[in-house]
Amino acid sequence: MAWIHKTEPDQAEGLLRKIYQDAVARAGKVWQILQLQSANPRQLRASLGLYQSTMHADSVIPARLRETLAVVVSRTNHCLY
Question: Is 14 left (phi over 0), alpha (psi -120 to 50) or beta?
Answer without folding.
Answer: left
